[in-house]
Amino acid sequence: MPILRLVAGRILLSIVTLLIVSLIIFGVLEVLPGDVASRILGRDATPEALGQLRDRLGLNDPAPVRYLHWLGGLLSGDFGQSLVSSRPVTEILAPRIYNTVLLSAYAFLLYLPLTILPALVQAIRRDRPVDHGLSIVTLVLLSMPDFLLATILLFTFVVLVPILPAISLVDHSSSAMDYLRAMTLPALTLAIVMAVYAVRMLRDNLIEVLDSDYVRMAELKGLSASRVLLRHALPNALVPTLNVTALNLAYLVGGVVVVEKVFSYPGFGSLLVDSLQLRDLPVIEATVMIAALVYVGANLIADIAAVLLNPRLRTA
Amino acid sequence: MTGATPLLEVRDLTVAYRQGGGWACAVDQVSFSVQAGEVFGLVGESGCGKSTVSLQLLGYRHPSTKVQQGDVIFKGRSLVGMSRPELDALRGDRIAFVPQNPTTALNPGIRIGDQLVETTAAHGRAERAQGAAVITEVLKLVGLPADPAFQRRYPHQLSGGQQQRVCIAMALACDPDLLVLDEPTTGLDVTTQEQIVGLLADLRRRIGVAMLYVTHDLALLSQIADCIGVMYAGRMVEIAPTHEIFQRPRHPYTQGLIASIPLIEEQSARKSRPLRGLLRRRDLPTGCPFTPRCDYAQARCAAERQELKAIDDSRAVACWRWREIAPIPAEPPAALAVTRPAVAVPALSVDRVDVLYGAKGRGFRAVNGVSFDIEEGEVFALVGESGSGKSTLARAISGLVAPDGGAIKLRGEALAPAVGDRSRDQRRLIQYIFQNPDASLNPRARIGETIARPLVHFFGMDGRRARTMVADALHDVRLDLSYQERYPDQLSGGERQRVAIARALVAKPALLLCDEILSALDVSVQASILALLQQLKSEHGIAMLFISHDLAVVRMLADRVCVLYGGEVMEIGPREAVFAPPYHPYTYSLLHAVPVPLRRPDKPIQSRGLAEPKRGGAGCVYAGRCPWQLGEICETERPPWREAHAGTRLRCHHTLEDLNARAVSPSARNKEIAV
Amino acid sequence: MSLDHAATPSHQSALSRYRLLWSQTPQSFRIGLVILLAHLIVAVTGPFWAPYGFSQMGTGIPLSGASWGHPFGVDQLGRDVFSRVVHGSHIVILLSLSGTALGLVVGAVLGLLSGYLGGWFDNLLQRFLEALISIPFLVLALIAIASAGPELSGNPILVVLVVALVYAPRIARMARAAAMDIATRDYVTVARLRGESAWSVMRRELLPNATGVLLVEFALRAGYAPVLVGSLGFLGFGLRPPTPEWGLMISENRALIIITPITVLGPGLALASLVVGLNLFTEGLARILGRTVRLGAQ
User: ipTM greater than 0.95, yes or no?
Assistant: First the structure.
């Protein structure tokens, strides 16, 4: 089965990429900076304290040994202990990941209609005022940094039309409604940022497909405008958009860093920023590895989906 | 034209498309009509607006085109003013469309059965059982298998010919009154084209559907059309019954177009001169658009608009001087026989060359044990349809792909398989000219630099010496000096191909590899490049390996011909001998498939479908598709080489006498149309 | 004499040729260029005419909102936000452009070489670049800054290096694809058949034909660089206060958004308009060069 071989090949490549990512992260955070212990404790740390920390981190071993040790831990699900709170990293990560997954899912739900509807309108009304207007809107939104967009949304829905909370603090005791209210603004921000990019792409793809021979053929067969659009054009235009959606998923992992910070949402992104400020190496390493895993995984799924959706490859 | 109300009437149709900020006119006041059951051919070179007209016959609307004036009237109803639902009810049902490129016209993601059902369903023929019956029937009608397994296939699982049959089946599904065909065979191999055209002629006989057939190929049109309209630069310049167009073309453009058709038959003196120059839409005169290229043009032509006027009850022409102009006879073709120095060593010798493609298990032999010699100064043609291995062979000779077996010798010296291992002189002596002139010139280099580069590289010339050589080279390919300073995007396709030829010539090669160098060009440009090649052949005496699928072109240029099928030589010999009986069955089917003006085939020769070549089998590669297959021996045993007259060799289980008899006896295959 | 009639060369003056050229440029290109020029003029001349210094306190009543004297309001420390935005202009533009340029040079060289040479060098480099790309760019930037340590934090050179680090792999991937595409064209095949060296092919055939791709890629990345620089500042990992970097200013004044929204919207407008200008310019440039471009730097 050539298709299985293709998929297996892609999975293998993804694993290689992740291994290299782990090398890069380890190198950047633990080898490049020189003495990690003094970097963590600062310049005026006592030699005893430094020695203690080195022992705790196993810094006296040579770098390759430490890397293998760390990698072994990663593979067995042991991310080590936080330097700050001494709790296992997995225990710190778990609730944060839960929160971020919820937020991402919410953002993704908003993202789909925000992408498909404007793109359809633009493609159908191509070169008309609606199309130009929406193009300008997406261009401006595209050019707006996510932290600025988040701030403006915050200002609008908290100050001008006070219907949502400014700070999205939630914990395990929060009710479902609390969660929903807390997540709306960050999710909307993320969804808009992802959508503007995808709208432009989907519009162009749609127009390309609408100009294709087979859509013209469908029209000349006497099919109605809506059938031509929904049966012939949209499915073929969505396939390349899959790739963008994978990229968008990957963006989410980075995007949450800023957006969660703006709304003080206790997710994975704000954990990364906090632990960077505290120089909590094990937590940083674990979060970055997870971010890379999500990116690689999203691309892998998009690639495989593209193969499965393409009859040419599927039946090869 | 008969007095009955026509099925379709186009009146003063003017269509513009968006260009930059404004609108450019693509079709300018075109009028014609199609009677019920009639086949109307629309012919012209690329960019003449013929496809735009064909789309308007279905009321096609697109944001970047608009009908500025005129009307299309089908059975008394105007298509231009019709609403979308009204149009939807009409097209696919009463008027159906067959596209140019079936590969892109079928939705790649939908099974062909579903695409067919969709059509019948849209026109209210959806009742399950009945709909399925209709589809089975039309698939059979176009000669496709109608079983469910076939209907469950995706378009990419069909060959190009099958895809086009599916499109035709789709068009016929609702039993239309009019079929609009937009270059339906352009992307197909010549044998497939023959079958499709045969199918259309047959359909017409059986169901009497009217057709509008759009093509650039006038010879092809003569086989199927009743009446032909000739378009030039968006205008209709002449309309006449088919035999009238060929016997007495009135418009100078029609005359030139007919004279530009490369003829596969005897190269007798032509009635008129081939077309010169090419269409430049940016600087057209206000009057007749053909003025800049016309041999009879006068001052009045450029200023005064030429309307299409009836000159008798069946024909119309848009030229005020049509009575006065008599065709200018063409110059007699240059003497092709060149006295070649008698050299013992051939320029190129190819000895049992194999080229394998793909991975070990699934790979196939693209070229299998091919041998031939090319003498100094000889034009050697390789012919065959796509997939026959002719380009692969050229790439192996050039060193782009390393052959997996056999030897290639240049002037007696063995060549290394890869180009990197060959000496500078060997690389210089073989020059490659590619099919697509758009891709073969560096768009960021001036023409002068492009031609000078081989001089600098091979001969270490300085700038000034190189410049005089470049000037000579440009002169050789009939371009003037100002071209040195231009970039490729300022040149037309034909001019670019001339530059590519000049770049090859300055290296003073022993052998030119010409890989389908005419097939991307318009008919009139083809004719002028062909004339150039003929001149170069007599002036320079360079050996050429001329690869082409166009037998007519090969006949005009080649000294010897080699016919390839499935990577193997089927027949090889001097041109006149290959083009005369006894034919190899494959050579015969190729020759038979070439459309010849005013000759209608009775019906396509009995083909055994479009089977793939049987590569690497025990029998003949052509077995399974051969029209004259003997029997089991073809499948199980390699055919022997047979020596025919004049040194022709062909490979077939039939004896020469048998082949001779078969080529001659059923020669009722063609009959002249009574004039 | 040519059989194919050639268009006569135009005899126009240089000025009217330029005017014709300008009239043929897409509208987005023209609008983008005007916005960019406005930003550049402010960046170059701003420090000479800004009403107040960038760290000058007591210019007005803190948090007093927009007025003629203080169009973008006054911040908590009594600094004029408009003057700070004007002073910050050249910092943002300089950091963005130099970071992108560095990334372009490194990325283009690596990508073109890798694409044309192929083989193990290409394979190895691709895996490494792929790994760098799979770390979300903001995360990559943050850990790079973290690894640089406290001595370098807030250093503009670090910000430039980080921008280059984030962009180089992405530009390299683009350049590689371009090189591989161009390498299949017949004119490169002709050069190979002639036996030209890899270096000569690179210089004569690849580079001239890749400039369009690289130019658009540069403009595209430069368009997002201010956002990246701003995000770093916003999160507190970029330049240090009191530098008038726009992202940092938005972060500083964010707490005041309820009282004086203009202190956040002012720098935000400056940042967004710069990026809009760059994006419009990029889109127009791409259209002039006959390429398609996907705006957004993801």
Answer: no
